Amino acid sequence: MEVTARSASGRILTLAVQTDKGTVELQKTEARSALGPPRSTLFYLEPVLDSDRAIDGYRFIGGGFGHGVGLSQYGSYNLAKLGWTSAQILSFYYPGTTLELLNDSTVYYRNPQ
């Protein structure tokens, strides 16, 4: 197995798996789904070698279960239990940002032409 492409956040985009039938390329979450664990696409592979230094298997080293956007669901839940407001929690996880009410000038999607 070899990670052949990663996103800027380190998540797997393409994983090449050599099989007896040839190489299979797994895209993004296909890698996670095909292998069972890990539960995220943010993982690293470490070959496990036998006494002859041949690959005997792989160790999966996980990098988290979240969406990769920087807000911990457990952490924010606990901050809320401590009495923090939603604005305080968002400011903690995303320093320097501001909250604004949605309005007609808010753009959700721009068509790249």
Please tell me about this protein's structure.
It is a single chain. By secondary structure, the chain is α+β, with helices and mostly antiparallel strands. It has 2 domains: 2-62, no CATH class; 70-107, no CATH class. It is 21% helix and 30% strand. It contains 3 helices and 5 strands. The protein has a 3-stranded antiparallel β-sheet. The longest helix has 9 residues, at 73-81. The mean pLDDT is 85.
Summarize the model shown:
With 113 residues, the protein is α+β, with helices and mostly antiparallel strands. The protein contains three helices and five strands, in the order βββαββαα.
Number of spatially distinct domains: 2
Radius of gyration: 20 Å
- What is the number of strand segments? 5
Helical element count? Answer: 3
Summarize the helix and strand pattern as letters.
EEEHEEHH
Which residues form runs of ≥5 with pLDDT under 50? none
